């Protein structure tokens, strides 16, 4: 394919607030219906369908039809990473209402970042891994150490299986609320899945925030 990247098309697509609301909702890595996305963006369903069509044409969002319902999700982790990076360099908007502040505080404590554990909870776990030398930085690259492999295996994460998966095995992901790193890459996804599977965290149905269960409180008391 010949030609130059059409940055203007990308900027134009991101300039619409409703599209941004839809994209940030989809950063949880799950499938959502048009009505769910419309409700979150506070727009009508036919308007949400229009925005989703544009994002599907850009290969940002994919659809899956089951029966009479059509479900949408982000095409790749790269889109989520783009949004997270933009959040990190964006100016801060003032919180203007109690509901906005309540939602922000929930997201700040813990949330999903395209199937990574983010927020204070994710950052605290990342720092725990660093302090115990389960992971370490080699220049700008993040590495899992031998004792780190033993640790993750001990909590039920199959490292050999993850290393065979396509994509980046491990990487730091800059957290937009905490302005430091949480665990990313396939290892970050595997750890998030472990937390869900073991019922350490429960997802909020209203946004991307997660909260700890009693067993999660015990696990993260580290």
User: Can you count the beta strands?
Assistant: 11
General form = globular
Question: Reading side by side through the largest sheet, how are the strands ordered?
Answer: 1-3-2
SS element count, helices: 11
* Cα-based radius of gyration, to the nearest Å: 18 Å
Please state the average pLDDT score. Answer: 91
Strand content: 15-25%
User: What is the helix fraction of residues, given as a range?
Assistant: 40-55%
Q: How would you spell out the order of helices and strands?
A: HHEHHEEHHEEHEEHHEEHEEH
Task: Profile the largest sheet.
Answer: 3 strands, antiparallel
Regions with pLDDT < 50 over 5+ consecutive residues? none
* Helix and strand composition category: alpha+beta
SSE topology sketch:
Elements: H1 7-14, H2 17-26, E1 32-33, H3 34-41, H4 45-57, E2 61-66, E3 69-74, H5 77-89, H6 98-109, E4 111-112, E5 117-118, H7 119-131, E6 135-138, E7 141-144, H8 146-154, H9 159-163, E8 171-174, E9 181-184, H10 185-197, E10 201-203, E11 210-212, H11 214-219
Antiparallel strand pairs: 1-3, 2-3, 4-5, 6-7, 8-9, 10-11
Overall description:
With 222 residues, this protein is of the alpha+beta class. Helix content is 50%, strand content 18%. The protein is built from eleven helices and eleven strands. The chain has helices at residues 7-14, 17-26, 34-41, 45-57, 77-89, 98-109, 119-131, 146-154, 159-163, 185-197, 214-219; strands spanning 32-33, 61-66, 69-74, 111-112, 117-118, 135-138, 141-144, 171-174, 181-184, 201-203, 210-212. The strands form five sheets. It has a three-stranded antiparallel beta sheet with strand order 1-3-2. α3 (34-41) packs across α4 (45-57).
